[in-house]
Amino acid sequence: MKPTDIPAIYIPDILLPRKGTDMSKWAVIACDQYTSEPEYWKKCDEIVGDAPSALRIILPEVKLGNETPEQLQADLDAIAESISDYTANGIWDEPMTGFILTDRSTPLHPSRQGIVLAIDLEQYSYEPGNKMAIRATEGTVLSRIPPRVKIRQNASVELPHVMLLYDDPGNKVIGAAENCPSTLVYDTDLMQNSGHIKGLFIDGNSEGAAKIAKAFGEVTSSDGLLFAVGDGNHSLASAKAHWENVKKTLSGDDLKTHPARFALAEAVNIHDKGLDFEPIHRVIFDMTRERFLELAKEFFKDNGLTEGNGGKQSFTVVSDGEDDLVLSLDNPPHSLSVGSVQQLIDSFNLECDYIHGEDSVRKLSKGNTIGILVPGISKDTFFRTIECDGVFPRKTFSMGEAFEKRFYLEARRIVK
Question: Which site in 32, 185, 332, 336 is 20 to 30 Å from 346, CA atoms measured?
Fold first, then answer.
């Protein structure tokens, strides 16, 4: 690990599979995707077969809640054994100290660029309202952390699917990276029609690496915000929790240099044209449009609720056999429409699900189930909202489709 002039950013010691490894089988999508589609992960297993793969050293979350404690423990033991076997058999080349400039294409976008780097977990917090350099973008569900901590504490390496966002409308960071001398270290298709990715290694001791770090410093906000967690919030929170446990056993210089203090991630410019922000809508069960309107009038009685477009915020109620009902708020209780809607849902403890895509909401909104369509959030106000309001309401936005999520490729040792 090598520090930079930006306290939150370190230049990592990156592990990649040795030359000759089939990277199309090694790279696997983030473990928190396709959680309701076990057939996707079954297909991954068929594709990988006996080949070396990140699939053998991660735990797909489709298994959580669907396995007994004994089965889950067997999975964790198998992951630890695979990591040990891969290490003993030399699956990884020697670590390379530097950044990796990624370029990802998908069926929807020809390019999305990022920088693989390490962050100092002491500069990250998921507590609402914090002023750390690295902040969560949504509420953290604490119950989701322990299983992930268990994986991390039994592993000697980490593979990241965390994507950090930074606010760089002038494209200073990628501009600096593209002008650096670099070496192609991977160039591969991604399984199950998820596109293609290539990675260019930039030596951490080079002038180019220093320029990249300097560019990150230039896009840090006035209140110190550099990175907002776009994907992988709970994985990063788990890394933080693991570090807090490890830290209790350390003293002296180990507190500053222990590898568990850091986490590998990919940083992506929020203004990248290959990064789509999609709203996450709500479907409410055991609810009619008439009953929802009664609840809305009660909850928003001081917020200037009116029917039809107008006001500072609006959202749309969808129900079977009825025209869409638009509700507007002149004095909303939250800075985002989705936040105002979520406050109503939470206040009455309504049973709901979080749905991507208007078509899916309309299909589900039948009988005693209604849909709530919320507007998307703007990239231009994203960071300002975090600075003002702290974390977004849970399930506010999605970054692209499932197949566009980050794939596991790089690794880093997290033990001495």
Answer: 32
Strand, helix or coil for residue 95: coil
Q: Could you tell me whether strands 124-125 and 134-135 are parallel, antiparallel, or unpaired per DSSP bridges?
A: parallel
Query: What sections of 165-288 are H helices per DSSP?
Result: 172-178, 207-218, 233-247, 254-257
Domain ranges of the chain: 2-276+400-413, 279-378+387-398
Distance CA 386, CA 130 (A): 10
pTM of the model: 0.86
Containing 340, the helix (H) or strand (E) segment is: helix 337-347
Per residue in 169-200, pLDDT (tens digit) is 999 999 999 999 999 999 999 999 999 999 99
Biggest distance spanned by C-alpha atoms of the chain: 68
**Dist CA 355 CA 279 (whole Å):** 9
Enter the tokens of residue 258. Answer: 């222990």
For residue 289, what is the enclosing H or E element?
helix 289-299
CB of 281 closer than 8 Å to CB of 397:
no
Separation CA 167–CA 382 (nearest Å):
9
What's the rounded Cα separation, in Å, for the pair 173 and 326?
A: 41
* β-strand pairing of 262-269 with 163-166: parallel
Nearest residue to 377 (alpha-carbon basis) of 230, 260, 251, 267: 230
Q: What is the pLDDT of residues 346-393, one digit of tens each?
A: 999 999 988 878 888 888 899 999 999 999 888 888 898 888 777 788
Contact yes or no for 51/22 (Cβ under 8 A) = yes
CA dihedral 229, 234, 240, 246 (to 10 degrees): -160
Tokens of 180: 């650096």
Alpha-carbon span 412 to 263, nearest angstrom: 8
Q: Which DSSP helix (H) or strand (E) runs through 174?
A: helix 172-178
Contact 336, 367 (CB under 8 A): no
